[in-house]
Amino acid sequence: MADVPLRILPRVVPETEFFWTGGAAGELRFLRCDDDGTYIHPPQPRCPKCLGKSLTPTAVSGRATVHTFTINHHPWIPGFDPPYAVAIVEIEEQPDVRLTTNIVNCPIDEVRIGLPVRVVFEQHDDTYIPLFEPDATRA
Amino acid sequence: MPDILERKAVISGAGQSDIGRRLMRDGLDLTLDACIAAIDDAGLTRDDIDGICTYPGPMDVPPGFSGAGATQVQDALRLNLNWHTGGLEMPGQLGSVINACAAVAAGYANHVLCFRSVFEGSAQARAGGGRAGVTSGGGGGGFRAGGFMQWTLPFGAPSAANWIGMMAQRHFHEFGTTREQLAQIALNARKNAEVNPNAIYREPMSMEDYFAARMITTPFCLYDCDVPADGANAVIVSRADSAPDLRKPPLHVEAIGSALRGRPSWDQWDDLTTMAARDAASMMWSRTDLEPSDVEVAELYDGFSFITVCWLEELGFCGKGEGGPFIEGGQRIARDGQLPLNTNGGQLSAGRMHGYGLLHECCVQLWGEAGERQVQRDGGRPPRVGVAGNGGGPIAGCMLLTTD
Ligand SMILES: [Zn+2]
Asked: Is A54 on the interface with B (CB under 8 A)?
């Protein structure tokens, strides 16, 4: 992925706007329960732990760890050229909150489970797509 | 143990249409072939059918994913129904059969026609493209992804191959599973397809062929992935006390598994190496005194090879994480092995019949009607206990069937 790929973008709706636009402020944001601190993803109307409704989009550190990955070689999407690394990362604040993403700024043969990564954003129109790159500070 | 009401249900007949990569036939046409064959197989007529259940119901997208809905078949066969349903939100493709068991146990119907049909091969050929039929967006005004797909499509991961590939990669990492081991699912399927006249891919395949295939998404090469196909399968679920009216001894539904205890998501599921097979299998075994060692034939979903490994583990045919060593070399899962697996060639070689092809094969094997590929136990009899497991990722359903 030397060049910016032609990404299929998410449909931004009020419930997900904080997530897809957080990158404008350099922030990776998740809904968080005001009462017990649980992070919730994808967004839901109630906290799954306490069923409370006081939820606030909250910025996290952007630090994460590669939970698993795949190097995709098949040309599924015109303009999004393989090979590229697809990964599921778990966020540092709450590892059961995961994102499917791409690992960028990293040779594909260096992507591994357990790799410390940090968020970077790629802007497309009104959306900021959260991608992850190796976090040299935690290598 | 609760009352196991699925034991009031039997499978009385099974039918299959022609199966091919691209038959260029209408989905309803294929569906009716399978349905009529199943009704005949049970020794019934369409006047006896008073229930219908199908997966996933009528859908136009993705193209060819659904050959027909319940009411289309009802109308085409002019059935008089007491009960009918179809849909996508259920424990996998087998959810439709599980629902039919509940319907006959509840007395809603006496004989339920269950079917699943696809014509993805032809539909994609007509659309002029391959499987990659994803509309590209980007820029203003283009297609935008919603629902679950918004979390994967922007990252070039539109396919279950990507999502399940990541589950397999995690399994490799935790348990040391290898591609050489995974290959056995594909090689075993092909070996069985060689003697199945209705299978799509029947030429012999070697380990060298497997490793020479192009990579799709690690650790999956082409032969770890099933391909779009055309075909339909149907079974008849009947009341157990209707046996005297049937053409042949029906198969007993010993137990079903429909549980979902994790998050219904391809990436938020707690332990990606178990998939929902964990929950369905656990429920199924809680409803029977039979044990994994009693099973004599296993027909386990292989939309991608790793799914089958996962089902083998979660159904308890080997320990957690031991799926790789269990299938290594392929002897255990061969037709003459300890646990004959995907004896029709599975979806990998017989065609993506989306779970129902494996259920059909389970029935045919238990009835001893599998011809050259028939499993022979104890030197000559057909298997007496079979399991069918459907679905991958956060979707799973399974059934244990017996001959007596
Ligand atoms: Zn809470």
From this structure: no
